[in-house]
Amino acid sequence: MASSNADLLEQAASPQTSPQQSEKIYQEVLSRPTPPNITPEAHAQILREQETALLKLGTLYRDQQNAEGLARVITLSRAFFMSSTAKAKTAKLIRTLLNFFNAIPDSMPTQIRVLDDNIAWAKTEKQIFLKHSLETRLAGIHLDLPHYRPALNIVKSLLTELMSKRLDDKLILTEVHLVGSKIYRGSDNLTKAKAALPLARTSAALIFLHAEEKDYKTAYSYFFEAFELQASAASFAPAPGKREGADGALPAVTGDAPIDTDGKGALESLKYMLLCKVMLNLPEDVHSLLSIKLALKYAQLRDVESMRAIARAHQDRNLADFEKALRDYKDELSSDPTIRSHLAALYDTLLEQNLLRIVEPYSVVELEYVSETVGQGRQAVETKLSQMILDKVLHGVLDQGRGCLLVYDATEADTTYTSAIETVQQVGKVVESLLPLTKRDLSSLFLKTFPVVALPSLRSGLFRYEPIMKFNIANPATGQQKLIDVDDERKYRFVYDKKISQEVPADSLGPEFAGYVFRITGGNDKQGFPMKQGVLLPQRVRLLLSDGHSCYRIRRTGERKRKSVRGCIVGPDIAVLSVVLVKQGDADIAGLTDNVLPKRLGPKRATKIKRMFNLGKEDDVRKYVVRREVTPKKEGKKPYTKAPKIQRLVTPTRLQRRRHLKSLVRRRTERQKEQKTEYDALIAKRVAEKKAKVAAIKAAHHKPAATA
Description:
The protein has helices at 2-12, 19-31, 40-63, 67-81, 87-99, 108-124, 128-144, 148-164, 170-186, 190-204, 216-234, 264-279, 285-289, 302-316, 319-328, 330-334, 337-359, 367-374, 378-390, 416-449, 456-461, 489-492, 606-613, 652-707; strands at residues 364-366, 396-399, 404-407, 469-475, 480-486, 503-505, 517-525, 540-545, 561-566, 574-583, 628-630, 640-642. By secondary structure, the chain is α+β, with helices and mostly antiparallel strands. The protein folds into seven domains: 1-105, no CATH class; 127-208, no CATH class; 210-334, no CATH class; 416-461, no CATH class; 469-583, no CATH class; 598-646, Single alpha-helices involved in coiled-coils or other helix-helix interfaces, CATH 1.20.5; 651-708. β2 (396-399) and β3 form a beta hairpin. α18 (367-374) crosses α19.
């Protein structure tokens, strides 16, 4: 049966066979029942042949511009493969057949009907990821028509489902945000269109790798998966002149990646795969990678030959061959900025390796000889050698007067200092183990010598250590914070002489802290003075502080004040030490690592919310605060959402209060002016009365004299 199906497929693919005959042959292959009692290998072979017949039939309908026939093929693939093939493979087959609609003009109504049917089927079969992909594609089709209302309803439903169920599908989430932004822009809602772009950027940052991060291992896996998909899709390319986009066909809609029918995407992915192998110092894997079945059709192209030449030069550590490959394949290697930047870094690495190979046998070597051997200019060689010396890749000195390079042997580290420190640490452990015995002997001796103080209240507190230092531990990963009291100086002595921002192991605090690492962030001494970063002293100092300095808050503009602060070096006088959990140990700590507190998803300050969503004065900030879903503790209660209280929010009530305060100030000022005017008038009246009284007295005094 398998060989008969293979013969029929070969006959249908023959150029002498007409499209009508090919259609009948493909339908015959699909209608043949699977014989009973066959081996699993034979059954898998039959499924592969039937899958090929299904794709070929879809390709035939696409070339004939038969949208209804393609819709029947999609329905047939669902019913045919769902019972015998994995769900993921069936979903991939449906997506591939749906992409064939892109080459058929005026097929939008048929696409919408087929997508609605397949979305309902995916929901019934619990194909969640396929359902999301199809709904995103349907929203893109409504956007192209344009039908903004149904497209917006689909996007809102998708966002609700993706955000509420916490599905880890960042690619679909990014596409949904982008489609939503286009829909809002088309419906003239620019505020929401701008607000959707930062959300898409946040989701995309979790799935896209930046080329300069040099995470070649992860990038290789991404490129390999893309190459397999694109190379498989290229094998079902339509005939010349009937590719997607020709004869007025619509381009691929947003929501699903377009099928690479010409092989350009597969070739680009293959080039990046070869580049990752070279940058991982595995150039010998390039030959084996090009020998796989999907890569054979691209192995003789100039783009692949260029990467093969680069890998060969890197494997031989030959700088001349590397430069020759860059010259011979200039168009293939220099046109792509990503490949060009990484090859520049690879060129520097090869140059360093060649220089080290040349100068290592010598103690003194002339720069002219080095430049001639490596085939570079003397100035470039001197610059590179200087950089290698500064980076401690090469131990030596450049003698400019003699034009030579003096090469030194690598100095071995002296272990005397390290051994001495280890010895002192072991002695310290012995002393700490003997310390409890010494305290107990001193306590008994003190009670025998001074029996008058041997009262029950004093006896219980004599030679007993109170909690001396508190550790305020914060865990940014969970959002929890815990304050612990340590009453044994031996346990927290490991933080002595450590500075702020220094990392310390916390094993000495107890067995539950085994493997934990803390970073010191601050603290207070026993008098409450805070530790200040940059003050490299273990005691308090007085500093003249101004605006912008920590440990000081100005009361007036331009104010400076001398304040007492504690240095950043930890000592015995520290009462509370603030630390941050950097590395978690083996065991969980209750209240610190056992529970993850919900994080705030967005800013709380009103100005930052406006800046994040590009809002204006007419927009209501309260509608854009990020809310989080809260699951109630009681059973049967519906989940609800909570949002943080917006800080510095300008509301009508606040504006009214501000106007009221200004009116109070204005009325107080006017009242003070009126009181001052009345007071000035009263003073003037009193002065006039006093002058009149004085004048009357003088007149009365001069009158008797005149009479006499």
